Amino acid sequence: MATIKDIAQAAGVSRGTVDRVLHNRGHVDPAVAERIFNIAKELSYRPNRAGQALANMGRKRRIGIVMPSLSNPFFLDIKNGMEKSGEENEMALTFFHYSGYGEKECLGALKEAIENSDSLLLTLPDYRSVVEEAEASSLPFASINTGLSSSSSLFYSGPDYRQKGRINAGLLSLMCSSFTPRVLFLRGNSQMKGHMEILEGFKSAMDERGTRYSLAMDIDTEDDDAICFKATRSALEKDKEINTVFISTAGFKGAMDAIGDRKLFVFASDDTALISAALEEGRIVWTVSQDPYLQGYYGVKKMAEYLVTGEKPTDFLSRNVVKIRENIGEKVCL
Question: Strands 287-289 and 321-323: what pairing?
């Protein structure tokens, strides 16, 4: 069966142009529109029923986006990428935020999004109740930034978290010839699939390299500075042998305030303004960023293409980029 992609290739135009013509959304040269209609007829094109129904309702397709609070600046970058892509692909975006990773609040945000959307982009903990709610909605959905254990998810747009953990392990192995790391591992929440994959990748790469180290503790900090401060201070007071801190998600300020002037080997994730400043000051050794803007941009782009064509998108894996003092200011381009 012919698809919008087939028509676009035959007509020598973009899929967006074909979509505008077939759904009578205007802004296309009449000669081009006539050529597209003729090609569609020749190829016996049949419209995607979901997309056609929305077009017949005379409104933009609505994507409901469920993600953590923007108090974490990392997610502001994802949101910015989504909004840019939404404008380019004529999608109506609505954001549904939650604070912390509590199951009840996350489920509530998801239910609200389901009631007000035609499709979903989800950054949520991997609770079974969350997965079942998304699947039962019958709305097309995909995972952004962290995965969900569901075969119904259309695609994933985010980093390879295991590889991120492995990169950090490789860097640490190269740097620790003069000491044996005893590591405090700080993560957001163990229900976030990606947060656990970082630790899995880190441990597997350390073991493969045969690097001598010990994992003192791995702690949930809820990506909250106040919680992270208390957890980090408690861990450092309890275990005086900790000499290395891996801040694998957010809560960076809380962790660094707890560390204070202790001479510890510290590395982090992402490249927010606070992390950039800490690199400049030499308080941390490196960070591994993951292109949050592009995760958001391609998440919306791929969902928009699915709503137009009905074709299942491929995943988008963002780059894991090692940032040190010398390259912390470099920006990612589309």
Answer: antiparallel
What are the distances in angstroms from CA 262 to CA 183, 244, 266, 334? 14, 11, 10, 40
Cα pseudo-dihedral 225, 227, 230, 233, rounded to 10 = -60
Residue 205: other Cβ atoms inside 10 A: 21
φ/ψ of 269, rounded to 5, equals -125, 150
Residue 181: both structure tokens together: 């790391």
d(CA 49, CA 118): 13
Please report the pLDDT score of residue 66 as a whole number: 98
State the amino acid at position 39 in one-letter form: I
Q: What is the dihedral of CA 149, 150, 154, 158, to 10 degrees?
A: -10
Amino acid at 332: V
Of 308, 245, 300, which is closest to residue 63 (Cα–Cα)? 300
The CA distance from 131 to 125, in Å, is: 9
**What kind and span of H or E run contains 45?**
none
The three-state (H, E, C) secondary structure of 121-175, written as one string: EECCCCCHHHHHHHHHCCCCEEEECCCCCCCCCCCEEEECHHHHHHHHHHHHHHH
Q: How far apart are CA 298 and CA 88, in angstroms?
A: 11
Coil, strand or helix at 81: helix
Separation of alpha carbons 258 and 313, rounded Å: 43
Query: How do beta strands 214-220 and 182-187 pair?
Result: parallel
In degrees, rounded to 5, the angle at the alpha carbon of residue 38 between the alpha carbons of residues 32 and 44 is 135
How far from 149 is each of 28, 135, 154, 241, CA to CA, in Å? Answer: 41, 11, 12, 37
pLDDT digits (tens, 9 = 90+) for 105-160: 999 999 999 999 999 999 999 999 999 999 999 899 999 999 999 999 999 999 99
The pLDDT tens digits of the residues spanning 18-53 come to: 877 776 655 677 788 888 888 887 887 766 554 554
Dist. CA 299–CA 78, nearest whole Å: 9
